[in-house]
């Protein structure tokens, strides 16, 4: 199981939308995915129509050492399981900050899942902050995917997350963390600024940027209120088409990496 963090400390960039819909589209391709909601706001949890339940998050595993497999739940989507979030994770930030192993704790908790053989990928949806859970997710992950909004402030957010990633590597918490990809979100093809931001990011980060661009659509904004992924809510719409293409590109990238490693 490879662990993928979907992170950006800037809010409103389509991070949870990308985590939920990339996971959902991967499962349509037969990939076994565990979605882990690490944001105390629990948007990925509610975005799949699931209730926030006390004791249903990773809090007890992180703080008390319980088995994380106890809180894995199936969803209505075949091949997609989830560890939900709850507001108790906000308290977890404080508990972990007091410990001496806050950067390595999540990696330790996820270790049994890595070797279980039940999942191909774990996708971690992190909070839009620089807190302990977010940095712990980077320390626990094999790869990082950064969604950024196609606006000027998105460039600032990208610069910050790249800097944080390098610090996680340099401090020894996760020297092998890979910036696997950058996903351009909320793209408005009619706006010159959106196109300029895409060009600027591609000029600087080259092949790291996914070719697939996620459009700004009303339907993508509506899906969380219905507790559905975009492929359930509007399967033939522009948002669903884009996220399916993103999932296909993700699979192709990882197939090439696996082939190169072999």
**Quaternary class:** single chain
**How many distinct beta strands?**
8
Going across the biggest sheet, name each strand in turn: 3-4-2-5-1-6-7-8
Which residue ranges are poorly predicted, with pLDDT under 50 across at least 5 consecutive positions? none
CATH topology (level 3) name: Rossmann fold
The average pLDDT is 90
What is the number of independent domains? 1
In DSSP terms, counting alpha (H) and pi (I) runs of 4 or more, how many helices?
A: 11
Q: Which H/E pattern describes the elements? A: EHEHHEEHHEHEHEHEHHH
Largest sheet: 8 strands, mixed
* Overall SS class: alpha/beta
N/C terminus separation: 17 Å
CATH superfamily: P-loop containing nucleotide triphosphate hydrolases
Write down the Rg. Answer: 17 Å
Q: What is the CATH architecture descriptor?
A: 3-Layer(aba) Sandwich
Strand content: 15-25%
Helix content: 40-55%
The CATH class assignment is: Alpha Beta
- What global shape is seen? globular
